[in-house]
């Protein structure tokens, strides 16, 4: 650390230090005096009158703010000389300046904390980045390169690969320099303001939104994602609408450009903040539309996979798994329902005589027939092989028998084209079981009842229906 900076730190470690003592020390460095006065007289600080002495500046800003600002200027000069060849100091300090300006303008508008304190916290919130770059060197530079312009990604990569973040390192430095709990907590939690101690949460939120504001305002930044994050943070932390959040950004941009030269930063052209936000919103809209299209596609694919998993490919009817699920649901509701089990008569003979292609035609025909007859609130399924099943919610065995008879007569009346000399006449047999509330049958027992009725229909000569239901409990 530069000698003058060390002296500032040492002086402020003494709780008896006065503003005049600090001003006297700073006055020994003309370059530092000039930068302090230029900054304090900038529009962002709203002095209202010309500040011409360090003493006046210190009295206006406070001991802590002058101390922090002096440290920042000293570090800016020293680190540029030491690390300028391996670390982009211009980008680093430009980001600090915009973060500080955005934090300060937020504090002004919301009144959540002292604007000067918010500025100094924002200015130093990334001091840990400098410390890690200097002490770790190459490995840290690689992490920074991978993160690129994404500051949140930098924080995550630091934690993952180094088990410590620049926020933690910066807070440790601030504590060692006795910069006060406001700055220590702002540095420590500016990437996770919701976890900050309640006493300092407003200050931390100012630093946090300042960091996001810098992402929006920096040249060559991809402001799109940061813009959405900015509006969300300003609403979450301070309840500000988009118009007020825009005002903060516009003022922060102007203030940041005004004081950039004090950190040896080349001037940047005035930016149209409204256009930045408009472009970002337009891009966000494009992304939202693309995401919506992707969501629809994913939902369509999900439904297709669900149908594939629950549908019988040949007949198009729900499969055995879907039947079992629906039956369990009906049993769980303890409401009345009926079941029809259907078996195509002498189906094995169709396969043996005409081949399996003809047999498939018969199954397909049966699927279409049941789809056209069975009510929408019921489930018609392929149970397995040549067997089909129908579950009818809130239906007694008498009405179920009527539907079964309708299916049976429709089957007998519709011959199936199997590409033979003549269409094939097919019949079916059906067994019906009914269940009333309180009936004790399990799914297996209930299926057995319907199956027993089906067996009775076949024993009666086929092409007929029979019904049964369990006794009440």
From TrEMBL:
It holds the Pfam family GGDEF. One of its GO terms (cellular component) is plasma membrane. GO terms for molecular function: diguanylate cyclase activity. Residues 1-193 form the HDOD domain. Its EC number is 2.7.7.65. InterPro entries: Diguanylate_Cyclase (IPR050469), GGDEF_dom (IPR000160), HDOD (IPR013976), Nucleotide_cyclase (IPR029787), Rev_trsase/Diguanyl_cyclase (IPR043128). Residues 335-470 form the GGDEF domain. It comes from the Bacteria. PANTHER family: DIGUANYLATE CYCLASE DGCM-RELATED, REGULATORY COMPONENTS OF SENSORY TRANSDUCTION SYSTEM. This is diguanylate cyclase. It comes from Algisphaera agarilytica.
């Amino acid at each position: 650390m530069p000698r003058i900076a060390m002296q500032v730190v040492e002086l402020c470690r003494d709780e008896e230090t006065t503003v005049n003592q600090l001003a006297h020390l700073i006055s020994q460095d003309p370059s530092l005096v000039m930068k302090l006065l230029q900054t304090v007289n900038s529009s962002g600080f709203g002095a209202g009158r010309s500040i011409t002495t360090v003493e006046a500046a210190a009295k206006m800003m406070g001991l802590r703010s002058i101390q922090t600002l002096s440290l920042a200027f000293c570090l800016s000069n020293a680190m540029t000389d030491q690390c300028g060849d391996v670390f982009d100091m211009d980008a680093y300090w430009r980001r600090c300046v915009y973060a500080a300006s955005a934090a300060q303008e937020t504090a002004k508008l919301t009144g959540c904390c002292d604007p000067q304190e918010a500025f100094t916290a924002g200015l130093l919130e990334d001091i840990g980045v400098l410390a890690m770059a200097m002490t770790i060197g190459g490995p840290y530079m690689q992490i920074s390169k991978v993160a690129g312009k994404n500051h949140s990604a930098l924080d995550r990569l630091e934690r993952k690969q180094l088990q410590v973040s620049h926020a933690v390192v910066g807070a440790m430095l601030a504590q060692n320099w006795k910069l006060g709990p406001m700055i220590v907590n702002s540095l420590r939690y500016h990437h996770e303001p919701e976890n900050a101690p309640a006493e300092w949460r407003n200050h931390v939120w100012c630093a946090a939104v300042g960091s996001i504001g810098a992402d929006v305002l920096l040249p060559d930044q991809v402001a799109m994602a940061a813009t959405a994050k900015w509006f969300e943070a300003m609403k979450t932390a301070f309840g500000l609408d988009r118009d007020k959040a825009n005002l903060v950004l516009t003022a922060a941009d102007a203030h940041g450009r005004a004081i950039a030269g004090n950190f040896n930063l080349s001037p940047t052209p005035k930016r149209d903040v409204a256009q930045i936000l408009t472009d970002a919103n337009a891009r966000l809209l494009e992304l939202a539309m693309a995401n919506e299209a992707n969501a629809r596609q994913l939902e369509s694919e999900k439904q297709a996979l669900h149908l594939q998993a629950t549908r019988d490919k040949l007949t198009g009817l729900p499969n055995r798994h879907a039947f079992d699920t629906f039956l369990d649901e009906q049993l769980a509701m303890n409401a009345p329902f009926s079941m029809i089990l259907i078996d195509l008569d002498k189906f094995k003979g169709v396969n043996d005589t005409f081949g399996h292609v003809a047999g498939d035609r018969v199954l397909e025909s049966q699927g279409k027939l049941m789809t056209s007859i069975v009510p929408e609130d019921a489930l018609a399924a392929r149970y397995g092989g040549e067997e089909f099943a129908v579950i009818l919610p809130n239906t007694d065995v008498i009405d179920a028998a009527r539907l079964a008879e309708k299916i049976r007569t429709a089957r007998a009346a519709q011959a199936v084209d199997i590409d033979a000399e003549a269409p094939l006449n097919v019949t079916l047999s059906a067994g019906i079981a009914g269940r009333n509330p309180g009936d004790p049958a399990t799914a297996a027992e209930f299926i057995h009842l319907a199956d027993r009725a089906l067996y009775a229909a076949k024993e009666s000569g086929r092409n007929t229906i029979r019904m049964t239901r369990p006794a009440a409990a």
